[in-house]
Amino acid sequence: MSQVKTLAEFIVERQHEFTYATGELSQLLTSFRLAGKMVNREVNKAGLAEDILGAQGTENVQGEQQQKLDVYANDLFIRLLRSQGMVCAVASEENDDIVHFDNGGKYVVTMDPLDGSSNIDVNVSIGTIFSIYRRLSTGDKAAMEDFMQPGTAQVAAGYIIYGSSTMLVYTTGHGVHGFTLDPSIGTFCLSHPDMTTPADGSIFSVNEGNLHDFSPGIQRYIDDCKKQRMSARYIGSLVADFHRNLMKGGIYLYPATAKAPKGKLRLLYEANPLAMIVEQAGGMATDGSARILELKPTELHQRTPLLIGSKAMVEKLRSM
Ligand code: P6P
What we know:
alpha+beta, single chain, 320 residues, binds 6-O-phosphono-alpha-D-fructofuranose, D-Maltodextrin-Binding Protein, domain 2, 25% strand
């Protein structure tokens, strides 16, 4: 029986790797750890709890129908981050503007509290994605500049996947580490230390319904994957597709389309955190021409094309 190591123990053991003051990383990740368990509990009973299942009847800034679990998860993360004191402001997919906490925290968070939530009602895996940045502004509350930092400035990034098991995967720039929730004790336990993604892969994830919108180069790449008899896998839930590719090797593509001329996925709380994770695991993430992590944000909810996964696959796509 290998020694069980909890997320809390692991963070303490590795806190010397965290650039800033001792203990701050542990506090920063605690909110995600706790909220992840609570969201997991609601996700697992979504089919049963009438008050959770189905749409909330409201729309978020993206004009997307908010599912009740979206709102529950967003409110929960915001409540826990506010009370924990390290984070002074949050940019969330579910909020038009920055959510400010009056707590003098030195960090800001960007998050997609529940990505892929349209999949809840059909029992498909969904996920939380988050990034943590150090504040730049010095006023009594955070400023837009704190959220306009490039992805290279992230001090930590992670996701929680609510799937056949619930996992929290994060990086602080010193490798990628995966923890699986043991529901019998309500604890995230180290299950995937120092995760690396295969340099090459044979899985491609793309919504081929948009094929005729894609650039000729993307269309040629997808055709080439088929000629190589690769596996097409598209769950329609970014965190689930990303996590599978991270583990097995593969590429996820969400290029620009007619409906989404700048791509569908958001730079601040989808592309950047996953790009930091995939690079730390030896993979690559681009918008088709630039490295995702070097893109300079100009808006909270700006979108970007996202091509992310095994290095050899992304490099080949870029060459086309
Ligand atoms: P499409 C879910 O809405 C999401 O943001 C990602 O989780 C997912 O990969 C993508 O959009 C699916 O988009 O247009 O293929 O349905």
